[in-house]
Write a structure and sequence with these properties.
Layout: H1 3-13, H2 34-44, E1 48-52, H3 58-68, E2 74-76, H4 83-86, E3 96-98, E4 107-111, E5 114-116, E6 121-125, E7 140-146, E8 150-151, H5 154-163, E9 171-174, E10 179-180, E11 188-189, E12 196-202
Parallel strand pairs: 1-12, 2-3, 4-7, 5-8, 7-12
Antiparallel strand pairs: 5-6, 6-9, 10-11
Length: about 200
């Protein structure tokens, strides 16, 4: 017998017959409701989470966020984004909407189709009206997510995506602002994307 045959014979001898398949993975039960759990995990990841009662409250909240940080009242939003018609921007007339791509000193806003409660993660599916690159370009990203779209686990999100007519070309999972520990083992925010992340969780 060759050395190859010896190796394969040894592998076959170690096989165990009749071993039952493991049970399907089930995520841990959340101690709180999905929104509360998401907010707790996202906050631990250095994101700021604000809970709003209605979508109409978003423009005023955006204006307040920029004012608190002494940032210009300018928000970058793709020209064909659903948020342009979904939100009542006239309730915050001091805000200016820019359609050009944001830079590292700019603020961008995005609608997250899903979020994950057990990790505080936003799930961004790339679309023509929601370019994937916009989650990495601005210095401050403001994400809007509906409370009903905060799933308990990543598996729940995948089930929703699989049920959709078409899959997105890219799925970006964002947990807190960008960071790295490569520089002298010190955590630095804003390494490969936004230095700040604010999430607006909207109940209705």
């Amino acid at each position: 017998m060759s050395a190859r045959d010896d190796i394969l014979s040894a592998i076959r001898a170690q096989r165990r017959a009749g071993v039952p398949r493991p049970a399907p993975y089930a995520s841990a039960q959340l101690a709180d409701d999905a929104v509360t759990a998401f907010a707790a995990h996202a906050t631990r990841a250095a994101a700021e989470v604000r809970r709003l009662a209605h979508l109409r409250d978003v423009p005023a909240a955006v204006a307040e966020i920029l004012r608190d940080r002494n940032r210009p009242a300018i928000v970058h939003l793709p020209a064909n984004s659903a948020l342009r018609s979904l939100l009542a921007w006239d309730l915050a007339p001091q805000l200016a909407l820019e359609a050009n791509a944001p830079g590292p000193d700019d603020t961008a806003i995005a609608l997250a189709p899903f979020a994950i409660a057990e990790t505080g993660t936003l799930v961004h599916a790339a679309r023509s009206d929601a370019p994937a690159s916009w989650h990495f370009r601005p210095g401050l990203e403001i994400a809007v997510v509906r409370a009903d779209d905060i799933m308990n686990s990543f598996e729940d999100v995948l089930a929703k995506i699989r049920a959709a007519p078409a899959w997105p070309s890219t799925l970006n999972l964002v947990t807190g602002p960008s960071r790295t520990g490569d520089i002298e083992q010190t955590i630095e925010l804003g390494a490969h994307g936004p230095k700040e992340l604010v999430v607006l969780a909207v109940d209705a």
